[in-house]
User: What shape does this take?
Amino acid sequence: AWKAADLPVTTDVAVPAKAAFAIVPEAGDIMIDAKAMLAAVGKPGVAILDVRDVDEWIGESSSPYGKDFCPRKGRIPGAVWLEWYRMMKPTGEGPRFKSKDEILAECATVGISQTTPVYLYCFKGA
Assistant: This one.
């Protein structure tokens, strides 16, 4: 895609420059812990979103790495399922994220709107 857009390329070895960045305290608001997830179970208006593969959702497998990679199988009670692949679309350059409107349409299929608080989980948190 980069070359197709006729953007510059080089074989020079990059030399990274030292830099520092400020930690944004609010960034902690994007992650929750087990206690917060447990508190969300059964809470009206909060969507617990499972984005794992179908075999994990139905309890057939414990992870994408193998059926018995982890000792436990299952899902969080009350979770809705929207497999992460549904956020992607094929292109000539490989898979790409869908547009904002397309992603919102996918979310709407499981009752999630732009104003719905979403507690998302997957196998490894990536």
